[in-house]
Amino acid sequence: MTLDTGGPVNFKPRPVEGAPPETKQAVPQSLLLDGQQRMTSLYQVTLRAKVVETVTPKKKKVKRWFYIDIRKALDPAIDREEAIIGVPEDRVIRTDFGREAVLDLSSAEREYASLMYPVSQVFDWDKWQDGFDEHWPGDQNKSIRDEFRTFKREVLENFKMYRVPVIALDRSTSKEAVCVVFEKVNTGGKPLDAFELVTAMYAAAGHELRKDWYGDDGKQGRHRRFSEALRPAGTESGIIAGVANTDFLQAISLFYTRDRRRQAEAEGKLGKELPAVTGNRQALLNLPLDEYKKYEAQVERGFMQAAKFLHTLHIYRIFDLPYQSQIVPLAAILADIGDAWEHEANRINLVRWYWNGVFGELYGSTVETRIARDFMEVPLWLKGGPEPSTVSETMFRADRLKTMRMRLSAAYKGVNALLMKEGAQDFRSGQKFDHTIFFGENVDIHHIFPQDWCKKQGIKSDVYDSIINKTPLSYRTNRIIGGVGPSDYLAKLEKGNDATPPIDGDRLNLYLRSHLIDPSLLRSDSFEAFMLDRQKQLLALIEQATGKAAYLGNVAEEGEDVEGDNDAVEAELTIAAA
Known about the structure:
This protein is of the alpha+beta class and 578 residues long. The chain has helices at 36-46, 70-74, 108-114, 126-135, 142-161, 175-188, 194-204, 209-214, 222-228, 245-266, 281-285, 289-312, 327-337, 344-359, 368-382, 389-392, 400-403, 410-421, 435-440, 451-456, 461-464, 475-481, 486-495, 505-513, 519-523, 527-546, 566-577; strands at residues 2-4, 30-32, 52-55, 61-69, 84-87, 92-94, 101-104, 116-118, 168-169, 215-216, 219-220, 444-447, 470-473. It is built from 27 helices and 13 strands.
């Protein structure tokens, strides 16, 4: 665990044991709070290039160099830990009476001859390999040279590719927070989650669940496949990269527990005798290995289809995803119904279900019951059954739009995606925000009446920061808009410049209307009239998406008071999120 320096926590730095003397004069960028012994050991053994001072199990101080026995390391019948040996400071192991050398590694040539690789060179093997090849020349020694190349590929490469998990605390972390986190990590560590426990249970049956998720031996794991699914060029990950290993197990658990319930129903059981359909922690821990294998491919395909589904709604980035938690029932439903989701009637209802979950803000907390309920109810609805409770229970209030001011709100993100899905066109280019344009033009949510202009007019931030005054625009367009009033920036767009051609006024009006903006109100800088008109139009858009009429009345945003101080609320939410 590390902590960036320069914040309120002022620890006195101390270099890692064995670091060069000049290190004491350096100003550190970060401090190592937890893992000091491990990092010190790794540094001294692999990078320092000096003999290591250590202690024996009997607490006797000794100096040691460490080597890897190449042949033992490659022997699958030998535990690799047994391939690591320590030798005295002079690099010679002698008999008990010290008269006769058992193993002499006092020169590079003797290392080559003994096929003993120095751990101090695991990150830089080129020079040692050159000497090794010269020591074992000719065709008659080709097998020995090949042996080293295999060792390099199967053992040494692991040192360079190994990923060390790190908890990184930034410099703004308070002293109290650092103490709490350090105490939790240092005394108990991260508690085992359901995935780790299930991994341990499956290992007893000979199945390596961790390899399924993270991959092994050059094979891509499920986590990587999810990260790469529909990943846009130039970005690090796709829309379902945030799916956790427990999310995947949860979706499989829904199928398994549903099978158990159906079997109980077939046996004539009723009421409390029927097992619940669930994906809770206990259900994950009770998931048999054969049931996991039965459904893993089907559920993985469901998550892949979920990525496609979200893209059809113009949700491309994890950052813009209304609810991460809603992906689990979405993937499970798609896995259950298969290709039927692409039929128009089914797709329309699935889209409606999704938006009801978003604008009803039903996936914000305590979602396990809702996930299971939707998994059971939505497929039946698609076959002509009753509306699922997520659809029937959704209630969106008319004044809710006024309180959508932060990206933490699922509904806030939902409005942005709906505008793009309904064909919003960029003010400058007139392009619709499809997948290519979204990333190529760096599209994001921006103010329509700019913040600077609103501040000069004395308009409060909790009014002008509402989603009513925001819309998706490209980065370049937002730069042209700047901080002037709408009438001024629209005139600039119509006039054009060296980099941007002029835009016909009627055409620009069409672009504005595609964002549900009345051009006359924008051209006259009529802020209040604009807010009222656009609120009505956005409300109609949401009603169309959910298939439900809005209610009158105020309602607070998730984690926010309707009449609270916006800055204070954002600060509290930031702390809570951290």
